[in-house]
Design brief:
Length: 547
C-alpha cells in the first residue's frame, strides 16, 4: 500500500527532476499526429538536442492531444508558450537552435486565437501537457489526490453527494444524472457490484473518448476507482473497441503503473478498499455502445440488447448491480472531488452543468478536439472556435449526436449547446461529435449515409430496426436517385415513426433522427428529387407534399 502523503513525495521528486531542464519541448503523440509520423519528429528533436549538446537543459517529451488536429503535427515549447504547427523532422534542428533565440516564425501557430482562448478545459486540462505514459507526471498534476481524499476523508455517501451537487450528467449521450445513477447502484443490495467504463466510441467523426484515453488514461482510472468506492464495487471493466490500439496500449500501461504504486489493487491508501480494473476489447459493433449489449459482450456473449427493466443498476454484469458511465463522465469525477460539486455546478447552464468535449470534423477549418462550457452557442463553436467552413460554399448545417442525432441549419446556429436546447431542434448532444457541412452537401445523401450506417450496425434482434432501417435506406436511395414519389416520402415518414416507437434499443429508436431533422429543415431538397409530388388522391399540398 502507498500512504497518501507518499503522493506528495512522488510529485515533489518529479517536479525537482523537471526543474533541472531550462526548456521543455512537447510533442503531440496522439493518434492523429502519430499518423503523420510524429514519432519521427520526436526522435529528430532528441537527436538535435544531443547534437547541440543540450541534453542537460532541454527535455523532449511526448504528450497527448493538443487539440488543433487540422494544423498537426504540433510541437510546443515551454517556457514561452510557443506552439509550432505542421512540423516535420527536417524542422527539428531549427526549433532546438531557436530555443534561446528567436522562435521559428514560419512554423508559429497563433495560440491566442479563439480556438484556444474560448475553451475551458476540465476533462482536457492535462492533455498536451503531461506525458500520458508517465504516472509520476500525472501525480504531479494532482493525480490520484481526489481518490486519496475520497478514501480517507469522505464516506461513500459524501462522494455521491458531491457528484449530485455537481449536476454532472452522463456524457455518453443519454444525459442521465450521474449522481442519481450512482446512488441507485449504491442502494442495490449485493455482495458483488461492478463499475464499467463505456469506451466503445462508434459515431462517425467522433474521437473524444479515444483522445482522452490516449492523453490522460490515469484520470479515467481514478474516476472509476472513486466510483467503485462510492457504490461498493471492487472490480471495474473498460470496454474499448479494438480499433483504438494506441488508447488500449496506454490504458494497459496506466493500469500496470497504478498497480505498481498500489493505487489500484488491494488496500488502496491503506484503507482496506480494494479495486482492480481489466480491459475488454470490442470488435467494433456500434450496437455494443448500448449498455445491455455492452454487458453481454463483456460476459463473452453476442453483443445484442435486451429489454429493460431490469436495469443494469439492479441486474447488470453476471446478474449483479452494475454502474455504467462513459469515458468523459469518469474523467470529470476527480476534478469534482478535488474542487467540490459547487465549483463544477458553477460552469455551464442551469440544467446542463460543467463543460463538454466535442470533436469538430467535416468542412470546418479548425478540425480537432475542443472543450467548452455548456451553453456555448453553436455559432461560437462553428464560426469562432472552429474558424468557419473550409470552402466558399458557406455553412449549411451541423450534425450533432452522430447517427442518433440531427442536422441543424444555419438559422438555429445561435442555439446554446445543452441537452434541452438540442432536443428541441430534433437533435441530441450525443457523445460529442460535430460534423460541419457546407452547401455542397446534399441533405438527402447525408440522411441516406447515416441510415446505411444504422442498417449495417443493427444487431438484427428486433424486427422494427432490422427491417425498418433497411426499408428506410431503400426509400432514401430511391429518392436520392430521383425516382421517388410523394407516396415514398409519406411512407418514409411513417416508417420513421414506427421504428422510433417500437425498436428494442437506442440504436433503432434514434436511427430516424437524421432523416426527421433533414425533412424538418431541408424538406425542399427531398421534394426537388421527387418525380411525382401528387398524392394518391390526386391532390398536391401547397408546399409540394401530399395533404
Amino acid at each position: 500500500m502507498i500512504p497518501q502523503e507518499e503522493l506528495a513525495k512522488i510529485a515533489s521528486a518529479e517536479k525537482e527532476k523537471q526543474s533541472k531542464f531550462e526548456y521543455q519541448i512537447r510533442v503531440c503523440m496522439a493518434a492523429g499526429c502519430l499518423s503523420q509520423h510524429k514519432d519521427q519528429i520526436k526522435l529528430a528533436l532528441e537527436a538535435a538536442v544531443k547534437e547541440q549538446g543540450l541534453e542537460d537543459t532541454v527535455k523532449v517529451k511526448g504528450v497527448g492531444c493538443m487539440g488543433l488536429c487540422a494544423q498537426g503535427p504540433l510541437v510546443s515549447v515551454e517556457p514561452g508558450n510557443i506552439l509550432y504547427e505542421k512540423v516535420s523532422p527536417a524542422d527539428a534542428a531549427e526549433i532546438v537552435a531557436g530555443l534561446d533565440k528567436k522562435p521559428v516564425e514560419r512554423l508559429r501557430c497563433d495560440n491566442q486565437q479563439p480556438f484556444f482562448t474560448r475553451q475551458v478545459r476540465v476533462v482536457l486540462e492535462n492533455s498536451g501537457v503531461i506525458d500520458p505514459e508517465n504516472i509520476e507526471e500525472y501525480i504531479t498534476a494532482d493525480g490520484y489526490e481526489a481518490l486519496g481524499q475520497a478514501l480517507t476523508e469522505m464516506s461513500p455517501a459524501q462522494v455521491i453527494d458531491e457528484i449530485v451537487a455537481s449536476g454532472l450528467r452522463g456524457r455518453g449521450g443519454g444525459g442521465y444524472p450521474t449522481g442519481l445513477k450512482w446512488s441507485t447502484v449504491a442502494k442495490a443490495i449485493s455482495d458483488r457490484k461492478y463499475v464499467v467504463c463505456n469506451a466503445d466510441e462508434g459515431d462517425p467523426g467522433a474521437f473524444m473518448d479515444r483522445s482522452v484515453l490516449e492523453s490522460d488514461p490515469h484520470r479515467v482510472l481514478e474516476g472509476m476507482a472513486i466510483a467503485g468506492y462510492a457504490i461498493g464495487a471492487n472490480m471495474g471493466y473498460v470496454y474499448c473497441r479494438a480499433e483504438y490500439p494506441l488508447a488500449i496500449e496506454r490504458l494497459k500501461q496506466a493500469i500496470r503503473q497504478a498497480k505498481r504504486l498500489h493505487l489500484l489493487g488491494e488496500s488502496i491508501f491503506g484503507t482496506g478498499f480494494n479495486f482492480d480494473v481489466e480491459i475488454r476489447l470490442g470488435a467494433g459493433a456500434f450496437v455494443c455502445g448500448e449498455e445491455t449489449a455492452l454487458m453481454a459482450s463483456i460476459e463473452g456473449r453476442r453483443g445484442s440488447p435486451r429489454p429493460r427493466p431490469p436495469y443494469p443498476s439492479d441486474h447488470g454484469l453476471w446478474g449483479e448491480p452494475t454502474l455504467i458511465n462513459n469515458v468523459e463522465t469518469y474523467a470529470n469525477v476527480a476534478p469534482i472531488i478535488r474542487n467540490g460539486g459547487a465549483w463544477f455546478a458553477g460552469i455551464g447552464t442551469e440544467s446542463s452543468k460543467g463543460t463538454k468535449v466535442f470533436a469538430l470534423a467535416g468542412q470546418i477549418k479548425n478540425t480537432g478536439l475542443i472543450e467548452v462550457p455548456m451553453g456555448t452557442t453553436l455559432r461560437e463553436i462553428v464560426e469562432e472556435i472552429g474558424g468557419g467552413t473550409t470552402t466558399e460554399a458557406g455553412f449549411k448545417a451541423v450534425q450533432t449526436g452522430g447517427p442518433s442525432g440531427g442536422c441543424i441549419p444555419e438559422k438555429h446556429l445561435d442555439t446554446p449547446v445543452d441537452y434541452a436546447s438540442l432536443a428541441k431542434l430534433g437533435s441530441i448532444m450525443g457523445s460529442g461529435g460535430m460534423i460541419v457541412m457546407d452547401h455542397t452537401s446534399s441533405m438527402v445523401d447525408v440522411a441516406r449515409y447515416f441510415m446505411e450506417f444504422c442498417m449495417s450496425e443493427s444487431c438484427g434482434k428486433c424486427i422494427p430496426c432490422r427491417v425498418g432501417t433497411a426499408q428506410m435506406y431503400n426509400l432514401l436511395t430511391k429518392i436520392a436517385k430521383g425516382n421517388g414519389t410523394i407516396r415514398d416520402l409519406e411512407l418514409l415518414e411513417q416508417l420513421c415513426d414506427l421504428v422510433r416507437s417500437t425498436s428494442l434499443c437506442g440504436l433503432g429508436q434514434s436511427a430516424p433522427n437524421p432523416v426527421l431533422s433533414t425533412l424538418r429543415y431541408f424538406r425542399e431538397e427531398y421534394l426537388a428529387k421527387l418525380v411525382d409530388t401528387t398524392s394518391p388522391n390526386g391532390k398536391t399540398a401547397p408546399d409540394g407534399h401530399a395533404s
